[in-house]
Amino acid sequence: MGPLGYRRNTPSASTTDSGLQRAVPDGRSSRAVLRALALLIDRVVTAQARRPSETAGEIDAELVMQPLVRDALRQLTARSRDGALLCRVIDGQLVLEGVPIERRLAADDPLLGGLLRRALTLGIGSITVRQGAAPGELLTLASLVAQPIRVGEDIRPLSGDTPTTINRAVMSDEPPRELLRSWSVLVTPRPPAPDALPRFTPFSSAVIDDSETGTSNAGGSAVAHALSRLAAARTDDAALAAGDLFIELIDGAEFRGDALTIESIARATMHHVHTVGGGGGRLGGERIMRRLLHRTSLRLLATRVPYTSERTITLELMARAGDATVEVLVQELMSSPESQARRAYFDSIVALDLNATLLFDLVRDSRWFVVRNAVALLGEMGVEQADVAILPLLTHDDDRIRIAAARALMRLGTAKAMHGLHGVVEDKHPEVRRIAAAAYGLPGVGGGGGGVRPPAARLAAALDKERDEDVALEMLASLGKLGSADAIQRLLRIAQPAPAAEPGERQVNRDAWIRIAALEALVRARGYAVLSSIESLAGDADPEVAAAVVRLRASIS
Questions:
Q1: What pLDDT, on the 0 to 100 scale, is given for residue 218?
Q2: Which residues contact 107 (CB under 8 A, 6 or more apart)?
Q3: CA angle 141, 12, 289 (to 5 degrees)
Q4: Is 160's pLDDT higher than 60?
Q5: Please, what's the b/e burial string for 120-148 (b: 16 or more CB within 10 A of its CB; e: otherwise)?
Q6: Bridge-partner residues for 8, per DSSP?
Q7: Would you say 177 and 186 are in contact if contact means Cβ atoms under 8 Å apart?
Q8: Does residue 534 fall inside a structural domain?
Q9: Which residues lie across from 126 on neighbouring strands?
Q10: Bridge-partner residues for 88, per DSSP?
Q11: Comparing C-alpha atoms, which of 271, 358, 260 is closest to residue 312?
C-alpha cells in the first residue's frame, strides 16, 4: 500500500510490472525481439542506401511502405507483443539480460553482427524495448541505429514526446543523456571510460565553482572550509559545530538563490552521514539535512536534479521531505522547457513513489500537458485506484490526452481499466485503437478481471472497418489470444482466400500480410488443433502465404 492507502503496483528492478509493456523480459522472447530488430535495421539500411543523399536517414511514408521494410517491421512488432528486450553492449559483446551472446555466434550471424558493429560505431550502450511497443517507436529505433555514419559526426539523438521511465534500474548517478526515449523504447550511450568520468572532489578541497554559482571567492572558501570541518568531524560536538557553519551558508545561498551551493552542501552532508553511519558525528549531519529540507532549499535543490552527477543521493535526501518533495518536482516537471530535464523529473517522481493525491488533482487541470504528465505518472507509479480518475479521459477531445490515458490504463491493468479500453476500440486515433485492441488480448490482467475473457464480437466488428494496418494486426493478434470459438472462426475466414465476387460485384482480394497474421494468431490460439486447416493452404496461390504455412507447420509439428 502506498501513502494515503493507495494500492501501488510500482515496477522495480526486481519485480515484473503490470500491463502489456513489461520492463522485465524473458530470455527467449528477448532473443526473438533482438533478431527481428536486427533484420529491420538491415532492411532500413538497404532502403536508405537507395535513396537520394538529401533524404537519407529520414523516416517518411516512402521508407515505411517499402515492402521489405514493412514486412520486417511487422515481424518485429509481432515479436514485441510476446516479450521485451533488454540488451547491453559490453566489451564489444551483445549482452541479453546479463548473459553475453558468444562472439562467434554474433560473427557468424550477419544480422546480429551488423547490429553489433553499428552499435559499437554509434557508441550505443544499451537498448531497452518494452513488451507491446508501438510500430512507430520500433521504426524510429531501427532508423536511429541505421542512420548514415560519417567520420567525425556524432550520433543524432532522437526524442519522444512523452517522458517516461522504462524501469527503476534506469535511474543512475550519471547526468541524464539518452540517444532515444519514447514511451516504450530507451537507447542510452556507452558509458565513458573510468578515467574520463568526472570525480567528486574530496571534502577537504573546494567543490564550488565561483564562475557557475556567482559567489565570491570568499564565499567559495567558506563552503570549502565548512566541508573540510564536516568531513573531519568524528564526534557529535565537532559535527554540530560544523553544522553551525553550514546553517549560515544555507541561509546565504537561499537569499542569493544559489542552487549549486545548496546541492554541494547536500551531497557532502549525505556522504558524511553514510561515512559515519550510526557513530559520532551523525547528529550534526542530521541537523544540516533538516535545514536543507526547508521549502526554499528544497526548491533550489529540485532545480539541480536533472544536472547533478549524483542524482540518487540527492533524491535520498529529498525523500525525507515526503510529499513536499514530490510537489516541488512536479512543479519543475510542468514548468521546465527542456525535454531532458522533464524526463529527469518524471523518473525522479516515479522513483520516490509518493503523493498520488497531488497527481489526482492535476488530472483535472485545464492544461493538456499537465494532464498528460499526471496521467503518465499515475500509470507508471502503478496507482491502481487511478483507473476511475483516468477512464473519463478516454473521451477527451485532445488526442494526446486520450493516448496518455490509454497507455496509463494499460499499465494499471485493472479490470475497470481493461473494460474501459475495450470500449474505445473504434476511437478516431489509431494509437488509441491499437492499445484498445491489445487490451482485448489481456483478460484478467492485474488479477482484477478474474480471468474472464471479453467477447470477441466487438473486436471482430471493429476489425471489419479498420483501415490502419498496424491496428488491424493488433486486432488479429488479440483474437488469437482470446481463442474463443467466435474468434477462431473469424480468423479461419480471414486466413482463406477472398471468395469470388458475385456477378456485378467488385472482387476484393486480401493482402498476404493479413492472411499470414490470421494464421499466426490461429497457431497461437490452438496450436496443433489447427494444423489441418493450415495445411489446406500449403498450395495457396499467394507464394507468401504458402511459405508462411510451411514455416508455421514446422513450428507446431
A1: 40
A2: 113
A3: 110
A4: no
A5: eebebbbbbbbbbbbbbbbbbbbbbbbbe
A6: 383
A7: no
A8: yes
A9: 88, 188
A10: 95, 126
A11: 271
Amino acid at 408: A
Place of cell 567520420: 151
- Cβ(240)–Cβ(247) below 8 Å: no
Is residue 364 domain-shared with residue 493, that is, in the same domain?
Answer: no
Instruction: Give the residue carrying C-alpha cell 532492411.
Output: 43
Residues 337 and 361 grouped into a single domain: no
SS3 400: helix
For residues 259 and 228, membership in a common domain is answered with yes
Same domain (yes/no): 34, 183: yes
Residue 206 has pLDDT above 70, yes or no: no
Distance between CA atoms of residues 136 and 142, nearest Å: 10
Round to whole Å and give the CA distance between 417 and 395: 14
- Cell numbers that stand for 90 in this block: 559490453
pLDDT in tens, 394-446: 999 999 999 999 999 999 999 999 999 999 999 999 999 999 999 998 865 44
Grid coordinates standing for 189? 550511450
Nearest to 438 by CA among 468, 479, 490, 405: 479
| Cβ–Cβ under 8 Å, residues 307 and 340 | no
Q: In 3D, which of 266, 262, 309 has the Cα closest to residue 289?
A: 266
Burial of 212: CB neighbours in 10 Å, binned 0-12, 13-18, 19+? exposed
Relative to beta strand 124-129, strand 185-189 is antiparallel
What is the pTM (predicted TM-score) of this model? 0.77
Torsion of CA 229, 230, 234, 236, to 10 degrees: 110
Domain assignment of residue 473, yes or no? no
